[in-house]
Design goal:
alpha+beta; Phosphatase 2c, domain 1; Immunoglobulin-like; 6-stranded antiparallel β-sheet; globular
C-alpha cells in the first residue's frame, strides 16, 4: 500500500508597475483528461514568460502553455521525463513556425518551467530563466538552472555571484522557446514528494525581487491562493518593473486532510483496542489473540530510476479551486475568428456543474494588449443560461465594438467576488465596409470646349423687343 498525498494549486499573474501589457502566462487548471490518462501521465502545471518578437511575447507564452499539455497527454510514452521533454520540443517548433509565417511575430519567444506531479514523485523541466523551487523544512531549494548570460558566466568563473545580481546583462537569456527550430530542454527528477512540501513556479519578475527566505515564509505561512497574492503584492511594493507570475502547489498527507472528528477517532482508537484486548485476556480469549495476524507497517514510498505507473499511486487531487467542482470551457467563437463590423457577436461557454449559491460569471473585454478592460455587465450585458443545458451566452449588439482585435474573458467569481476560474480567447472586428454611391447615366448635350456664362434673362415686350430697363 502506497501513501496518498492530496494537494491544492493556485497561480496568479500581474503586469507589474511599468509594463504596458502582460506577456506572462500560466496554467493551474486540473487537467481535463480521462482518469486512465492522468493515471499514466500525471498532472502537468506550467509557467511561461514571453520575450521579444515585436510585442508578440504574450502569443509565444500562451502557445507554450496551450501546446505543451496537448502534446504531453497525447504521447502514449509512459516515461514521464522523455514525454515531457518531447512535448516542450514540439511546442517550440510550433512557436518557431508561427513566427516564420508572420512578420509581426518573427523571432518571438518564451521561457517555460513545467512540473509533473506523478504519484508521490514529481519532475521539473525548464527553458529560460523562469524558476521552480521546492520549499521543505523551512528552506527553499532551487530546482532549475537559469539559462542566462550571467548564470553561465558565474558557472564559468567569469564573474562572481554578487556581480551577477546587479550586472547590466542579467536579463539576457541564452535559451528560449520559439527562436530556433531546435531547443535543449533541461529536465530533472523524479523527486520524492513529501507531505507538507510546497512547490513554487515563478517568472523572473518575482525571483528578481523576492529573496529565498521571503519565498519560504510566504509559501509556508499561507494557503496557495493567499500566498500567490502576497508574493505578487510584495513584488509590486518593490517597483515590479517586469510582469510577475507565481504558482504555488501545497501538499498534505491523507491523514492531515481528514476532518477533525476522524482524527480524534484515530487518536483514541489505540486505547479502545487495548481495552478490548485486556477484556479478551481476562475472559480467557488467549486463543483468539493468538489467531490475530500481526499488523505490518505500510512500506515507505521509494524513488526508483524506472517508472512503474499504477493507478493506486496517483495523487488524490484536490484542484486549486476546491469549491469549484465544474470545468469552465469556452465554446464559440473559436479563437482568432474575424467578424465584419456592424454585426452582432454571441459569446458562448459551458460550465460542467451547477453554480454554487452566490457564484456568477463575469465577462470582460480588453484590447489586444490586455489594456482598456470593460466589464460588459456595466453596459447592461449579462449572461443568459440555455434551458436544461450547461451552456451560457452573451450577445454583443451590432455596432457595439469598433474595428480592432479584442480579447474576451469569462471569469467565474464566488460570492465574495473572488476569482475562481477563468478562460479567454480573442477575435477581430473588421472595419465597416465602405459605402459608395451607385453611378447613374445622365444624358448631356455635346459640351462646349470653353465654359461660358449662362445667358442673362431679360424681360421683353409683347412684340418681342427688349423692354428698356428702368433708370
Amino acid at each position: 500500500m502506497t501513501s496518498t498525498i492530496k494537494f491544492s494549486v493556485k497561480g496568479g499573474t500581474d503586469p507589474g508597475i511599468t509594463r504596458p501589457n502582460n506577456e506572462d502566462c500560466f496554467t493551474d487548471q486540473y487537467p481535463n483528461y480521462a482518469p486512465e490518462v492522468l493515471a499514466r501521465k500525471g498532472l502537468l502545471y506550467i509557467v511561461a514568460d514571453g520575450v521579444g518578437g515585436n510585442d508578440a511575447g504574450e502569443i509565444a507564452s500562451r502557445m507554450a502553455v496551450e501546446y505543451t499539455p496537448l502534446f504531453y497527454y497525447q504521447d502514449p510514452n509512459p516515461n514521464v521525463r522523455a514525454s515531457l521533454i518531447a512535448a516542450i520540443e514540439e511546442a517550440n517548433r510550433q512557436i518557431y513556425h508561427q513566427g516564420l509565417g508572420n512578420a509581426a511575430q518573427y523571432r518571438m519567444g518564451t521561457t517555460i518551467t513545467a512540473v509533473v506531479l506523478y504519484g508521490t514523485q514529481f519532475y521539473v523541466a525548464n527553458v529560460g530563466d523562469s524558476r521552480a523551487y521546492l520549499v521543505r523544512n523551512g528552506k527553499a531549494e532551487l530546482l532549475t538552472r537559469d539559462h542566462t548570460w550571467v548564470a553561465e558566466s558565474v558557472a564559468a568563473g567569469l564573474i562572481l555571484p554578487a556581480e551577477a545580481a546587479v550586472h547590466s546583462q542579467r536579463n539576457i537569456i541564452t535559451r528560449s522557446l520559439g527562436q530556433d527550430l531546435m531547443v535543449q530542454v533541461d529536465c530533472s527528477g523524479p523527486f520524492l514528494l513529501q507531505p507538507g512540501d510546497r512547490l513554487l513556479l515563478c517568472t523572473d519578475g518575482l525571483s528578481d525581487l523576492v529573496s529565498s527566505a521571503e519565498l519560504v515564509a510566504i509559501a509556508v505561512g499561507f494557503p496557495p491562493q493567499k500566498a500567490v497574492r502576497q508574493l505578487i503584492a510584495l513584488a509590486r511594493q518593490r517597483g515590479a518593473p517586469d510582469n510577475v507570475t507565481a504558482l504555488v502547489i501545497s501538499t498534505v498527507s491523507e491523514s492531515a486532510a481528514r476532518p477533525s472528528g476522524v482524527r480524534n477517532w484515530y487518536r483514541i482508537m489505540p486505547w479502545v483496542l487495548s481495552a478490548l484486548i485486556l477484556v479478551g485476556v481476562i475472559f480467557g480469549g488467549r486463543a483468539w489473540l493468538q489467531n490475530v495476524p500481526p499488523v505490518l507497517p505500510s512500506p515507505a514510498p521509494t524513488v526508483s530510476g524506472t517508472l512503474s505507473p499504477t493507478p493506486s499511486s496517483m495523487l488524490t487531487a484536490s484542484p486549486m479551486l476546491s469549491e469549484a467542482v465544474g470545468t469552465l470551457e469556452l465554446v464559440e467563437p473559436a479563437d482568432d475568428v474575424k467578424f465584419q463590423g456592424g454585426v452582432s457577436i454571441t459569446l458562448c461557454w459551458k460550465y460542467s456543474a451547477e453554480l454554487p449559491a452566490g457564484w456568477q460569471f463575469q465577462v470582460v473585454l480588453t484590447d489586444e494588449k490586455g489594456k482598456n478592460s470593460k466589464d460588459l455587465a456595466k453596459d447592461g450585458l449579462t449572461p443568459e443560461k440555455a434551458d436544461a443545458t450547461s451552456e451560457y451566452s452573451l450577445t454583443l449588439p451590432p455596432n457595439y465594438l469598433q474595428a480592432g482585435v479584442y480579447k474576451w474573458f469569462v471569469l467565474l467569481v464566488d460570492e465574495g467576488k473572488e476569482e475562481r476560474q477563468r478562460s479567454s480567447r480573442q477575435f477581430t472586428v473588421l472595419p465597416f465596409p465602405a459605402v459608395t454611391a451607385t453611378p447613374t447615366f445622365t444624358p448631356t448635350l455635346t459640351p462646349s470646349l470653353t465654359p461660358t456664362e449662362p445667358p442673362t434673362s431679360q424681360p421683353t415686350q409683347g412684340n418681342g423687343t427688349p423692354r428698356p430697363s428702368r433708370p
